[in-house]
Amino acid sequence: MIYHKMDINAIALPSESYNLIEELVNELKLRFDKIIVNFDNDKQGLISADKILEKYNISYFCTDLEKDLADYVKGYSFNGAKLMIQNKLKLINE
Fold this sequence. Notes:
By secondary structure, the chain is mainly alpha-helical. It has helices at 2-5, 22-31, 43-56, 69-75, 78-93, and strands spanning 36-39, 59-62. The chain has a two-stranded parallel sheet with strand order 1-2. It is globular. The chain starts with a helix and ends with a helix. The mean pLDDT is 91.
């Protein structure tokens, strides 16, 4: 929902431990120039993100300072979260 309000295309997985289906990944790669994962900034989030990077070569980032994007918006602001994401995406695209 937050990504939608930021005009960023996004999908939400049922959980961080969810195994992405290869057909879905292939479909997304056909539809979008870049796929980037944003899991929670915790142990499970990092483990899952590393698995996706290794298996599908999909970049990822974790939210700064908070566990997830919703907590970041709550603790800092919507605009602050949008700026943080823009900065993360710039780093990935360099």
